[in-house]
Design goal:
Keywords: Kinase, Membrane, Transferase, Transmembrane, Transmembrane helix. This is Histidine kinase. One of its GO terms (cellular component) is membrane. There is one protein chain. By secondary structure, the chain is α+β, with helices and mostly antiparallel strands. It folds into two domains: 107 residues; 193 residues, Heat Shock Protein 90 (2-Layer Sandwich), CATH 3.30.565. 63% of the residues lie in helices and 13% in strands. The strands form two sheets. Strands 2-4-5-7-6 form a five-stranded mixed sheet, with helices on one face. A two-stranded antiparallel sheet has the order 1-3. It starts with a helix and ends with a strand.
Length: 344
C-alpha cells in the first residue's frame, strides 16, 4: 500500500513539473495568434522533445546502460536520438517559418550555432534524468538497508530473548531445588508462583512491547520468589512506581539485573543487601540496582554473566545511542544503572 502511494506521489510530482514548464511560456506571451505560434514552435515543441529525451533515459537507458557501465552504448544511442530530434525540430520550424525563396537563411544566428546550442540543450534532460535516477536508486538502497537492519534487529532480539528464558528457568529451578529439603511447603508455593511467571513468559512476552505495569508485577513476583530461599542475613528492598498501563517497554528488559543481584549479592555466611529502585523521570525509565558483591569463582559457571551480556546487547539493538548502561563496584557493592527512553 505504501509502495503504491509513493508511486502515485512520484507520478503527481512529474506531472506538476511538466505542467508548470509548459504553462509559463504561454502565460508570459502576448495573447495573439502570432505569439501562440512562437510559443508552440520555440517553447512547447522543444519542451516536448526534451521530455522524450528525459524519459527515454530516466525509464530505460539509465538503468539498462548507464549504471551497468555500458557507457559506449549509452552515449551512441543518445547521440543518435539527439540528431534525429534536432532534424525533426528543424523540419518543424521550417514548416511554420519557411526560409526565404531566394535561398537565404532566416534572420538570426548562423545555422551551425543554432544546432550547437540545441545539442547542448538536449544534454540537460539527459543529465537530470541520470541524476534523478541515481538519487532514487540511492534512496531505495538506503530503505532496503534499513529494512534488512530492522529484520536483523527483530531476529537478534528474538534470539536474545530465547537465550534469556532458559537462563531464567534455570535460576528459578535452582531456587526450588534449594527449598525442597528445607521447606516443602515453601517449595510448593514457589512452584505455584513460578507457574504464574511462566504463563507471563510464554503468552505475553512474544511482542516488541509489553505494559511496564505487567513487567513490574513480573519483577515483584520474581523477587518474592527469590527471597524464599534467602536467610535473615540477606536484606532485600525494592521500590517500583505505579505506572499508567499504556506505558510500554520491551519485555524482560530488567529481569537480568535482578537475576544478577540474586546470583552475586547473596552469601550464606555474611551480611548482604539487595536493593532495586525504578523511577520514571524526564520521559525516561531509570532502573537502579545495588547489591553486596560476592564474586563467583572461575569454576562456578552460575556466575557466567550471560544475563548482563544479553541486556547490553538488547539495549544496543533497541536504543542505539539513546540509552545508558553503567555499572561499578564501590566499597564492596555492585551498582548498576540503566536508562531507556519512553515512547521510542
Amino acid at each position: 500500500m505504501e509502495h503504491m502511494k509513493n508511486k502515485w506521489r512520484k507520478v503527481f510530482f512529474h506531472v506538476m513539473v511538466w505542467v508548470v514548464l509548459f504553462s509559463f511560456p504561454y502565460l508570459l506571451s502576448y495573447d495573439t495568434e502570432q505569439a501562440f505560434k512562437h510559443v508552440l514552435i520555440f517553447s512547447w515543441v522543444p519542451l516536448f522533445l526534451y521530455m522524450v529525451v528525459f524519459y527515454l533515459n530516466y525509464l530505460l537507458l539509465a538503468d539498462r546502460l548507464f549504471f551497468p557501465k555500458k557507457i559506449a552504448w549509452f552515449v551512441c544511442i543518445n547521440i543518435a536520438v539527439i540528431i534525429v530530434l534536432i532534424f525533426f525540430r528543424e523540419w518543424f520550424t521550417d514548416f511554420f517559418f519557411p526560409r526565404p525563396m531566394d535561398g537565404g537563411d532566416r534572420k538570426g544566428p548562423p545555422r551551425t550555432m543554432i544546432i550547437y546550442v540545441q545539442t547542448l540543450s538536449f544534454l540537460v534532460p539527459i543529465v537530470w534524468a541520470v541524476a534523478l535516477r541515481a538519487m532514487e536508486r540511492l534512496i531505495k538502497s538506503e530503505v532496503e538497508k534499513k529494512e534488512v537492519a530492522h529484520q536483523q534487529l527483530k531476529s537478534d532480539l528474538q534470539h536474545l530473548q530465547y537465550q534469556l528464558q532458559p537462563h531464567f528457568f534455570f535460576n528459578s529451578l535452582n531456587n526450588i531445588y534449594a527449598l525442597v529439603d528445607i521447606s516443602p511447603e515453601d517449595a510448593k508455593d514457589t512452584i505455584h508462583s513460578l507457574g504464574k511467571l511462566m504463563r507471563y513468559l510464554l503468552y505475553e512476552t512474544h511482542t516488541e512491547k509489553v505494559s511496564l505495569a505487567k513487567e513490574i508485577d513480573f519483577m515483584v513476583k520474581y523477587i518474592e520468589l527469590g527471597k524464599l530461599r534467602l536467610t535473615e542475613k540477606t536484606k532485600v528492598e525494592y521500590h517500583f512506581p505505579e505506572v499508567d498501563p499504556t506505558v510500554q517497554v520491551p519485555p524482560l528488559l530488567f529481569i537480568s539485573l535482578i537475576e544478577n543481584a540474586f546470583k552475586h549479592g547473596v552469601s550464606a555466611q555474611e551480611e548482604s543487601t539487595i536493593n532495586f529502585i525504578m523511577e520514571l523521570k524526564d520521559d525516561k525509565v531509570i532502573f537502579k540496582g545495588k547489591n553486596t558483591d560476592f564474586p563467583k569463582s572461575h569454576t562456578d559457571q552460575s556466575g557466567s554473566g550471560i544475563g548482563l551480556r544479553n541486556l547490553k546487547d538488547r539495549l544496543d539493538l533497541l536504543y542505539p545511542n539513546k540509552h545508558y548502561f553503567g555499572n561499578e563496584i564501590v566499597s564492596g557493592q555492585f551498582r548498576i544503572i540503566v536508562e531507556i527512553p519512553l515512547n521510542t
